[in-house]
Design a protein that fits this description.
five-stranded antiparallel β-sheet, 362 residues, 3 domains, Heat Shock Protein 90, alpha+beta, 10 helices, Beta-Lactamase
Length: 362
């Protein structure tokens, strides 16, 4: 009788607590969720049998959450762990709590979690909104002033160059100054874009992969009028649709800018291949160049703007950091390989994974 009462009390606690309780199996499927979890994320109990972690974790937080759960399944425990879940309709839900291993005998069979919805804590939300407002105001002031400084400096340098009275040595020096100011403006622009990506939940739509990619190519060619970009590809508009938003164009522009600037030849060739990965919801897009390639260390650092050993001289660290963050928000990813495996000096291969979309609209 005592054991029955204990079980009744145990279930009553689980069913009535305000925390979100969940237990996740190693394959990402749900072993258990409590009523608060179901109500908060807008699922029915039957629907939880058909979903996995990537379905209820907000894009951009999947990798972080998967890594934590992997460590938990190896015996670790995390306190004050924060992540963002999403409702069935895609609304983000910020949570914080503890994740821990669930044992059966001596074996770990699942990862348990007790989360609280921090969106419901008005004080915390108000503080966060206030601090974000301060950061936004400061960023707006800084970018406004620096943009004006760059414009004035650029105008002065271009006026000097237009006199046609400079000796060649000085002309080269002033042209270098123009290039540096333009690089500064590009860097500043990417800081603003990164902030835009970070401060809002993406409104993901279905985007035409071919149309967006070729639009980026046209834009990049106009910014490099003395260079030629040749795409060896069968990718055309209307073939493939992916889950993304307006930042997808910026992703492709940044990647194509990288190839144009990293390859000093007048004609740059790029092999673009698209493959639908069977048994998954992803498309694999490969951009294979014939440039100088990069070492394994450079491959691991290229998307981290805090480590710019390879690409700081080109001012591209923030460009590619932006690419990484945008793709993560889509639930996708990017990595760099050798174009020819084991031959790093024969060029690089940028491999993107993007989620397929069946709805043909932009």
């Amino acid at each position: 009788m005592s054991r029955i009462k204990d079980e009744v009390l145990h279930h009553a606690f689980l069913d009535n607590t305000h925390e979100l309780l969940q237990s996740i199996r190693p394959d990402g499927s749900l072993e258990y969720v409590n009523p608060t979890w179901l109500v908060t994320l807008e699922y029915t109990e039957d629907e939880t049998n058909c979903i996995k972690l990537k379905d209820f974790v907000f894009p951009g937080y999947v990798r972080k959450t998967e890594e934590a759960l992997s460590n938990v399944l190896n015996g670790q425990r995390f306190h004050d762990f924060t992540t963002t879940l999403q409702t069935k309709t895609g609304t983000p839900v910020q949570v914080e709590g503890t994740i821990f291993p669930r044992y059966k005998g001596e074996n770990i069979v699942a990862a348990g979690a007790i989360f609280r919805d921090i969106n419901k804590h008005a004080d915390t939300r108000d503080v966060l909104l206030h601090e974000r407002s301060r950061v936004e105001t400061l960023l707006d002031l800084i970018t406004y002033d620096l943009t004006n400084f760059n414009k004035e400096t650029l105008a002065t340098l271009e006026n000097i160059l237009s006199t046609n009275e400079l000796p060649q040595s000085l002309e080269n020096l002033f042209q270098k100054g123009v290039n540096e100011v333009e690089r500064s403006s590009n860097y500043l622009s990417n800081i603003v874009e990164l902030w835009r990506v970070a401060r809002r939940a993406p409104q993901l739509l279905s985007c035409d992969l071919g149309e967006t990619f070729h639009a980026a190519k046209d834009f990049v060619e106009k910014t490099h009028p003395r260079r030629k970009l040749i795409l060896n590809t069968g990718l055309e508009p209307g073939q493939h649709y992916v889950t993304a938003d307006e930042f997808l164009l910026e992703v492709f522009k940044s990647l194509l800018h990288y190839h144009m600037r990293n390859d000093t030849r007048t004609i740059i060739q790029l092999d673009v291949e698209v493959e639908s990965l069977s048994q998954t919801s992803f498309l694999k897009l490969q951009l294979k160049d014939y440039g100088p390639g990069m070492s394994d260390e450079e491959k691991s650092e290229i998307f981290n703007h805090l480590s710019q050993k390879h690409h700081s001289s080109h001012g591209l660290g923030l460009d590619l950091t932006l690419v990484w963050h945008v793709l993560e928000n889509y639930g996708g990813s990017i990595r760099v390989e050798d174009r020819i495996e084991g031959e790093p000096k024969e060029g690089s291969n940028f491999v993107l994974l993007l989620r397929r979309s069946q709805i043909k609209k932009c």
